[in-house]
């Protein structure tokens, strides 16, 4: 925050030295800096690229202009009323765009396509608005100036610094970490029970309000609005500011917005074609060779200065993170508990191909149920049918007696199902401590203004962390971990959700014998000590024999055997399936039985 105080001091110090024209230009530049903060919060931190914010900016501006024109005065109350109307309308538009873009059947491309149409719709509405909007001429001289140019310069500059400071606090908080996690790995967030679309919708609406507020400031300070304020060119320019300055830096996009807008006002008027061409070339060069934006050039020297002047004890922002085990006790198993997981006729088809057919299963707490079978047997598909209510074609799945129906993975996770994927799925750009924090975001609401230094995890998660040595790696970035450590981290994240049903899809793939032994002990303890139901997909029959209480055999999407470890492991049919020497009639008889 010291840097922002310095900028505030510079702002105040330069006020008397600048001429009126320069202050008027910088006032507009500061206002555009607010929109850069909005786009960077959304795109740089949450990974949502929006072109709709150009139109949202125009909505805020036109709301003030139309309100002042209709009321026929330039009082401050009129500005406040118009600004409030603009913010409300912008939020409603944002909710509509979010509803079309953020849902279970949408991917990252939806918001780009939907939001791209919004500026065009805005311009068409303004042009068709007649005297109300001024059509192609816009509106001007609709109010007396509330403040003088010098006052607008200071006011907008201070507002920009306050917003920038608030945004910095937000992105450095646990909520900011959640935004980054969504940007890094949205699917992993969903299967941890995080309502990703809801988070995106809230952030989209909040940044819409800020953008509309910036538009209201522009109309109030400049006393003129035009259709291109909310058009596609304005929206594209906002995206360019963020890309040039550096996504996910906040300061970079603000500097880019202020500098580019100021230079455009000075140079663009004299050499418009050359300036636009140069800006376009610069944008292409940055996209191709500096994907981190111009701020990435300063990252190394800033890091060196930070290490030089920061106290040694504060070099590691996670050095003081404390991991605690939850005080809740796991009730002992008495053997009479109802099934934790029940499958009835579960089927999954992809067109004419049936991946899983008529699977029936009951499994209870404390069990380690292994699913084995050759490649293509439908093992991973069956796991998805349990963790994702929209995945199966027919049949039913009950968790703790509750049907998952057609629930999304996030809502299934809320019922107590958590899945570890076949390939380690973690948040590469986050530290181990941050990954574990995100795993609890469904049940422990992340702070919006600070990082919690105490992380209370279920005992099963702490058991994984201690057994695998992750406790000494809390400040390491997940992408820098070894393969085995990433597997352990994902398992710890899964257990941090405190699930009833733990789905593990080939968790020991690529691990050494020592790492397999450690994880095998952990799986047994999770089931026997913590009372979880562990369902494991694995190819290593020796490993399966060591840790399982039951084994299921799948072949060509059908359940062939469901029995004890000895019965299945010593079955001649299982051996023939793996070697490809089975008899089709014998296989058919096994299916019948």
From TrEMBL:
It is found in: Cell membrane. Residues 341-581 form the ABC transporter domain. Keywords: ATP-binding, Cell membrane, Membrane, Nucleotide-binding, Transmembrane, Transmembrane helix, Transport. InterPro entries: AAA+_ATPase, ABC_AA/LPS_Transport, ABC_transp_permease, ABC_transporter-like_ATP-bd, ABC_transporter-like_CS, LivM-like, P-loop_NTPase. It is a multi-pass membrane protein. This is Branched-chain amino acid ABC transporter ATP-binding protein/permease. Gene3D superfamilies: P-loop containing nucleotide triphosphate hydrolases. It comes from Mycolicibacterium austroafricanum. The keyword ATP-binding applies. GO terms for molecular function: ATP binding. SMART domains: AAA. Pfam families: ABC_tran, BPD_transp_2. PANTHER family: ABC TRANSPORTER ATP-BINDING PROTEIN, CONSERVED COMPONENT OF ABC TRANSPORTER FOR NATURAL AMINO ACIDS-RELATED.
């Amino acid at each position: 925050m010291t840097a922002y105080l310095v900028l505030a001091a510079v702002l105040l110090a330069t006020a008397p030295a600048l001429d009126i024209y320069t202050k008027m230009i910088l006032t507009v530049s500061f206002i555009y800096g607010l929109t850069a903060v909005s786009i960077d919060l959304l795109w740089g931190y949450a990974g949502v690229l929006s072109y709709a914010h150009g139109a949202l900016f125009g909505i805020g501006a036109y709301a003030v202009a139309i309100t002042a024109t209709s009321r026929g005065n330039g009082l401050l109350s009129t500005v406040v009323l118009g600004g409030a109307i603009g913010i409300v309308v912008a939020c409603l538009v944002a909710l509509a765009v979010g509803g079309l873009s953020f849902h279970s059947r949408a991917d990252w491309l939806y918001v780009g396509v939907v939001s791209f149409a919004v500026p065009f719709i805005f311009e068409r509405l303004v042009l068709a608005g007649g005297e109300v909007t001024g059509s192609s001429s816009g509106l001007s001289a609709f109010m007396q100036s509330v403040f003088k140019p010098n006052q607008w310069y200071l006011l907008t500059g201070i507002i920009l610094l306050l917003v920038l400071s608030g945004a910095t606090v937000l992105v450095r908080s646990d909520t900011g970490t959640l935004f980054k996690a969504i940007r890094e790995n949205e699917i992993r967030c969903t299967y941890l029970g995080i309502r990703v679309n809801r988070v995106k919708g809230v952030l989209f609406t909040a940044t819409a309000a800020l953008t509309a507020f910036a538009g209201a400031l522009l109309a109030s300070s400049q006393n003129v609005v035009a259709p291109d304020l909310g058009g596609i060119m304005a929206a594209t320019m906002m995206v360019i500011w963020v890309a040039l300055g550096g996504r996910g830096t906040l300061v970079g996009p603000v500097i880019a917005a202020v500098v580019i807008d100021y230079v455009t006002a000075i140079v663009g008027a004299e050499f418009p074609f050359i300036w636009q061409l140069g800006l376009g070339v610069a944008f292409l060069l940055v996209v191709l060779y500096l994907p981190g934006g111009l701020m990435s050039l300063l990252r190394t020297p800033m890091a060196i200065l930070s290490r030089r002047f920061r106290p040694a004890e504060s070099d590691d922002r996670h050095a003081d993170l404390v991991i605690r085990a939850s005080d809740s006790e796991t009730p002992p198993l008495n053997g009479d508990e109802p099934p934790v997981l029940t499958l009835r006729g579960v089927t999954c088809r992809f067109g004419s191909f049936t991946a899983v057919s008529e699977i029936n299963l009951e499994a209870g707490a404390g069990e380690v149920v292994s699913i084995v079978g050759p490649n293509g047997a439908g093992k991973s598909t069956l796991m998805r049918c349990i963790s994702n209510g929209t995945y199966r074609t027919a049949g039913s799945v009950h968790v703790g007696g509750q049907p998952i129906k057609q629930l999304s993975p996030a809502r299934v996770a809320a019922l107590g199902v958590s899945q570890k994927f076949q390939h380690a799925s973690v948040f590469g750009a986050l530290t181990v401590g941050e990954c574990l924090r995100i795993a609890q975001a469904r049940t422990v609401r992340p702070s919006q203004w600070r990082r919690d230094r105490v992380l209370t995890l279920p005992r099963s998660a702490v058991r994984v962390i201690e057994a695998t040595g992750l406790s000494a790696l809390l400040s390491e970035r997940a992408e820098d971990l070894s393969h085995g450590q990433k597997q352990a981290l994902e398992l710890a994240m899964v257990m941090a959700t405190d699930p009833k049903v733990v789905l593990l899809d080939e968790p020991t793939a690529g691990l050494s014998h020592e790492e397999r032994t450690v994880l095998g002990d952990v799986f047994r303890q999770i089931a026997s000590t913590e009372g979880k139901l562990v369902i494991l997909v694995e190819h290593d029959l020796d490993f399966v024999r060591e840790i399982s209480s039951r084994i299921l055999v799948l072949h060509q999407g059908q359940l062939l055997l469901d029995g004890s470890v000895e019965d299945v492991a010593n079955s001649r049919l299982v051996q023939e399936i793996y070697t490809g020497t089975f008899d089709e009639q014998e296989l058919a008889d096994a299916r019948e039985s």
